[in-house]
Amino acid sequence: MRFDILTILPDLLTGPFSNSIMKRAQEKGHLDIHLHNIRDYSTNKQKSVDDYQYGGGAGMVMSIEPIASLIEKLNADRTYDEIIYMTPDGELLEQGLCNDLSLQGNIMILCGHYKGVDERIREHYITKEISIGSYVLSGGELGAAVLVDSVARLIPGVLNDETSALTDSFQDGLLSPPVYTRPPSFNGWEVPEILLSGDFGKIEKWREERAIERTEARRPDLLNE
């Protein structure tokens, strides 16, 4: 799966994609991530990528020309299943959306800054707009990193145990149940006996019951969907 990320701060994204699961996924050829600096497509001497708003108002707006030039160049090289804009007013990123995107081949992600991008970019190039929450960040890079991580881990071969992603929170509409590891006793705090029993049928039933209890307590909205 290939991600092309358009940003004015590519260095901000090198860390998240150069470590742990994301790094190994790229080394194994499961994931192909390319960072593109929008400033490289600015035609002015200052390499600026923003300008004042028409109509006045506080805050600058990302200019249409360099973004359009970069998108056109990438579109000429390959076909993209989605061109995504990370924005607070986009569709909320949830597990079902991650599942759908993980089935795609090529995805382009535009990271906004300032007051956002010229609306004509959104109208004529963007196919999907995504938000990672009801709050505002300084730019779209952190959101893009979250999106790539949440989608890429669903690609077969990215995780060592491919069944692990299938038991994550939200995959079945529930939060994950509690998990434990060794030692079985620590400071007098015991692992539930059922998990040590070896009876996998009862263990699965216990996990399902705990998942429902946790969801009812913490995210009852999920049970009403």
CATH class of the largest domain: Alpha Beta
Q: State the total count of DSSP E strands.
A: 9
CATH superfamily of the largest domain: SPOUT methyltransferase, trefoil knot domain
Largest sheet: 5 strands, parallel
Determine the structural class based on helices, strands and strand pairing: alpha/beta
Global morphology: elongated
How much β-strand is present in the residues? 15-25%
Strand order of the largest sheet: 2-1-6-5-7
Oligomer class: single chain
CATH architecture of the largest domain: 3-Layer(aba) Sandwich
Structural write-up:
With 225 residues, the protein is of the alpha/beta class. The chain folds into 2 domains: 2-152, SPOUT methyltransferase, trefoil knot domain (Alpha/beta knot), CATH 3.40.1280; 169-223, tRNA(m1g37)methyltransferase, domain 2 (Trp Operon Repressor, Chain A, Orthogonal Bundle). The chain is built from 8 helices and 9 strands. The chain has helices at residues 11-14, 20-27, 64-77, 95-101, 119-124, 141-152, 200-218, 220-223; strands at 2-7, 32-37, 50-52, 60-62, 82-92, 106-111, 128-131, 185-186, 189-190. It has a 5-stranded parallel β-sheet with strand order 2-1-6-5-7. Strands 3-4 form a two-stranded antiparallel sheet. The longest helix is centred in the C-terminal third of the chain and has 19 residues, at 200-218. It is elongated and about 70 Å long. The model has no long low-confidence stretch (mean pLDDT 94).
